[in-house]
């Protein structure tokens, strides 16, 4: 099982690309704020990297 730091620390995180897509969207897109407690608990459970 990978640690949260291993899941976050990737060469090419997806957020910059997602953010550009959101900015270019034809319809309004709302991105809710991060809940650090929820993120800290769900990231290790999901084992999804920041690139995914």
Can you describe this structure in just a few lines?
The chain is mainly α and 52 residues long.
Helicity, in percent?
Answer: 40-55%
Low-confidence stretches: none
What is the rounded distance between the termini?
Answer: 16 Å
Number of strands: 0
Mean pLDDT: 93
**H/E series:** HHH
Structural class call reads mainly alpha
**Strand content range:** under 5%
Largest sheet: none
Task: Using the CA coordinates, give the radius of gyration.
Answer: 13 Å
InterPro entries: DUF2625
Protein name: DUF2625 domain-containing protein
Pfam families: DUF2625
Describe this structure in words.
The chain is mostly helical and 52 residues long. The chain has 3 helices and no strands. It has helices spanning 4-8, 15-23, 36-46. The protein is flat and about 40 Å long. The two termini are 16 Å apart. 0% of the residues are buried. The mean pLDDT is 93. Pfam families: DUF2625. InterPro entries: DUF2625.
Write the layout of secondary structure elements.
Elements: H1 4-8, H2 15-23, H3 36-46
Brief descriptors of the model:
52 residues, mainly alpha, flat
């Amino acid at each position: 099982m990978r640690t949260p730091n291993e899941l976050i620390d990737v060469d090419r995180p997806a957020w910059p690309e997602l953010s550009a897509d959101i900015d270019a969207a034809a319809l309004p897109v709302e991105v809710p704020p991060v809940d650090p407690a929820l993120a800290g608990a769900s990231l290790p459970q999901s084992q999804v990297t920041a690139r995914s």
